Amino acid sequence: MKCHPFGIDVCMVKIGSFRSGLLGGGKAPDHNDLLASYDQLANIPLSMIEYFGKFLESKEAPNPQLVLDAYLALAEMSVG
Predict the structure, then answer these.
(1) What is the DSSP string of 19-79?
(2) Which of 14, 39, 42, 56 could bridge across to 35 with cysteines, CB 3.0–4.6 Å?
(3) pLDDT at residue 29 tops 90
(4) Is 67 within 8 Å of 18 (Cβ atoms)?
(5) Looking at per-residue confidence, does 17 or 63 come out higher?
(6) pTM of full prediction above 0.85
């Protein structure tokens, strides 16, 4: 990134699959007539979201504390 000459360190954090409430905050699509034309394929996105949501509630889901710990470690890093 072009911030280095200004003494600004930049870091991009891609946390991946952690429970965040994001799935519950989505809006259902308004184009039900189009989805109905997809026949059985119309259910695939919803099935994937439901499966993913169940995974995030399971014992195998990653611990969200890992994200917090990573952010804190970044904040405590020395400049450069």
Answers:
(1) --STGGG----S-HHHHHTTGGGGGHHHHHHHHHHHHHTSTTSPPTHHHHHHHHHHHHSPP
(2) 42
(3) no
(4) yes
(5) 63
(6) no
Find out whether 42 and 35 touch, Cβ atoms under 8 Å.
yes
- Residue 22 domain-assigned (yes or no): no
All residues at 6 or more sequence positions from 52 whose CB lies less than 8 Å from its CB, including other chains: 17, 23
Share of the chain above pLDDT 70, in %: 88
Query: Domain count of the chain?
Result: 1
At residue 5, the 3 state secondary structure works out as: helix
Largest CA-CA distance found in the chain, in angstroms, rounded: 56
Q: Which domain holds residue 9?
A: 4-17+28-76
C-alpha–C-alpha distance, residues 23 and 61, integer Å: 15
